[in-house]
Amino acid sequence: MTNPPMPPAAVLRRLRKGCVIPAHPLALNHRRKLDERRQRALTRYYMAAGSGGIAIGVHTTQFEIREPETGLFRPVLELTAETMRGEEPKYEAGFIRVAGVCGQTRQAVAEARTASDLGYHAGLLSLGAMAAASVDQLIAHVQAVAEVIPVFGFYLQPSVGGRILPYAFWRRFAEIENVVAIKIAPFNRYQTLDVVRAVKEAGRAQDIALYTGNDDTIIADLLTNYRLSQDQRATGIRIVGGLLGHWAFWTRQAVLQLQECHRLAAEPQAPIPQRMLTMGAQITDANAAAFDPQHQFAGCIPGIHELLRRQGLLEGRWCLNPKETLSPGQLDEIDRVHKAYPHLNDDTFVAQHLDDWLK
Which of 78, 168, 183, 304 falls between 20 and 30 A from 333, CA-CA? Predict the structure, then answer.
């Protein structure tokens, strides 16, 4: 590819350094229509919390925004981009705008064009719609999208619409010039290592930023130096940040957690404090309440909405699909983790600024 599209230098630097990128939910009113005021408030919250970017049009935003009868894909991307641009002067340069891109090649390329036209820096490319495609077909699909927008790869777990992607795919994927990052979210250690090893062996460790989407092991992902060789002189590779639905709530605390992981990573000979491992388990427990793995993640989006509703950021936990609700017992679980881990939430931070974000 000649002169492929690339993000601005400041965005690339921030992406490679590693940051918190929340997967932005969709704010709806009781009529299940877009609540623009609260949609903007969510964006402002994530930016004020210290996030380095936002991902919109992704699973957490609800795939139904793409349905013709809903017609919200472009309006939601446009509203979020406009809000980000309005807030960006207050913050560090290089705020990362990521848009979800999915579907078969024709749809994916069209979504990538929309995102690019609206000023998004990368497309988070889901391959769930390509379930029957070969590795050759998958790579051709990625290359078609990459001609339009820089690619943020996405290994999505099969239980929420993804597919198994072999090492052979990731090895070739990593060679595409304007692949700038990969969200690793298979919820599987073996498949996570496939991605890490592919990027390292492709010689792209300095170019492609690795982001965790493994909500069940966030802290461990961020603390690990992956040295996939017996040669102790070999440099490792790290997962430097996260693009997570889990970071769509309690986001200020997520920023502080990532900062601590970065501090520890800068001292490679120092032991990992037990408190970090303990906190990692607590985060996973909190995630289980919100994301509902007991029911194959059926309540994951309403679970996020419920936590944001309690803070006043959302009016309710409505989804575009009326059947998408909390699972039996999930509300009790959310009550339990909120009470058990007060140090993980940022209720006080939100309460201090909510009125400003809702203006």
Answer: 183
